[in-house]
Amino acid sequence: IGVGITVPNHLKNSYMMITIQNKNLKTRVYKEGKYYTAESLTIEVSSFGKTKEEALANLQQAIDLKLENSN
Question: Which of 24, 52, 64, 68 is the most buried (most CB within 10 A)?
Answer without folding.
Answer: 52
